[in-house]
Fold:
Amino acid sequence: MLRCIIHLVPEFYEGKLTGVVWVGGEDISKCSIGEVSKKVSSVFQDPRSQFFTVNSTTEVAFGLENTGLSHAEIVRKTDEVFRRFGLEKLRGCSVFMLSSGERQLIAILSAMVMDTDTILLDEPTANLDTAAIKRLSRLLMDIKETGKTLVISEHRLYFLKDLADEYWYMKNGEIRRKYSAAEFGRLSEKELDELGLRSTDLDDILPQRSQQNQDHTVEDVFEIRGLSFGYDSDNAILSDVSYKCRTGSVTGVIGANGSGKTTFGKCISGLLKAGKGEYSFNGVPIKQQEMTEKSMLVMQESEFQFFSNSVMNEIKNVWKNDASMELQVEQILKKMNLWACRNRHPFSLSGGQMQKLTLILAYFSRKKIVVLDEPTAGMDRRSLKACAALIKEMAKTRMIFIITHDIELIARVCTDCISIREGEINHRFVLGGDGAFARLRDYMKRSFSLGDNVRKVAKQAARVFTDIRVYLAYLIVSLVFCFAGNTLIHGAITTGLLILALVNRQFRQIVTYVPVFILLAAVPWITKALLLNIISNFFLRFIPVGMAIDMLFAGDGASKLIAAMRKMRVSEKAILILSVIFRFFPVIRNDMKIAMQALRTRSFFPKPSDKIKRIPAYVEMLVVPMMFRVIRIAEFLSASAGTRGISLECRKHSYIDCKMTARDYVLIIILPVLMAVYQIIK
Structure:
């Protein structure tokens, strides 16, 4: 229905459409998606699919860039929306380094900044902590009071209590009933349960599992001591975390968006190597690399965890096609309402169905420790109950960690709950005692803050100082002389790129490419073997090209290049095509990293040597799912671009301001000078 309102149906998603959608008194069937985007802005259910740039600030500004606003006005509106929501800390960050909740907040800001009369939000709170939900609710109330229309598709209902005027109950593609706010508020928990709807008041949520599971036949003990981790020396995500649990425990891991919960889960799953810390299982120390054998992480990104061509084959990969398991598999699939989908490709499932399948894979795995990252995000009550029942069954022989903001899930399954704040466990709740759940609920409602994440304010000094057109000039020269030039010409271009990298502190590129260039250039001096010389000469020609491309797209280079092309009056159609291409490379690189982590947590290749022995299988399991992922990326990016006005016919400006300075011209002049000097030396 939301896709019909934003006109993605039928202009983007094909099918048979009858009826009319009116927005602002106008039949939108006569409008393009871009024209509708002037009236309606939208937040997709998966924010990753909506992002068009890799930088949080330029992502928020992207829609404004397509509306004809001046550079100054784009900057003003973008800065204002970050300030208004209290999220200045998330400015200038790579969207790949943000937590899922933080990415969701950026997607919401991208819609809010457009200031349209109608705003559509599809599951906006799915990955948000209670502080962010509270702030979102207040912001939506402010927007509503200005006379704007909000249409919100949601399963979490409590935050809508004072916000919504009407509730439309949908079933099987129909609006079955419309409730006024007062009518909906009077529905009892029993009536909500019959409709498959979540609680409308947090205070109505009561614990349904208050003690350690006593049904287990074995009792293992897992302990973490002094766990610390940081992605770099300046950004400590976890600091001296210690925790102990045993078979039957279901530990909820809570905290603000960006507080380090997923990092904690990846560390105890063996996917991230901790800087400090020790693990032990039944009192025996475990090495970091052994944690992947003991534990499994079910990621939020469900589609990265499938490597087979059907639901049933995906499960068989876990239980090794054991015939004795077939009846149990059938029973579980029926309980989770997936039996009818058993022969479908996992990528054809809905988001909720994918989440259920990943949980089933964890259930049938033989791992003693299972980490679930937001397993019920975007689920209705019936799906939540089914997942909770499976988690309880799993806990009879396992230790479960659930990274979640979903207090309804915690009430149903958790025996303990730990809160991570500023990289440390600052609270632990043992949920078996009287009033323990009420204290936890009060803590979650009142104690989180949007400033609790461990992310530091992005360093402005890390930005590229040189105008992006200088990099473009170097790339063009590198391409021109790729085949025509000799070794000295390539050396001159590489030297110029080296100077450019030093000026802009791009040290990674220097460390990566310079040793390779020196090694290839030295081959003729080391050996006279014809084949080796031909190979080294061939690859030597591409070193400057590779280095120039890497430097050009480093950081937020793609956004800067788009801004430069607009300054150069390049056709907007060409910019659209190039924008999608530029977006693909960092997405695919990041997605490949996630897919490799998923392979590790599934233990398909327990040892590095197994990957070498089974290279065809390893490559197939990475590449085939990625092909499906590429198709999905193209689909969602095209939809996102359309709903954000990229097709509008107007003179467009960018958030990023390109200006050539005297130093930029000097850096361009250096290149032909170096080439001339090297030729003279020759």
Q: What stands out?
A: The CA atoms of residues 44 and 122 lie 6 Å apart. The longest strand covers residues 221-232.
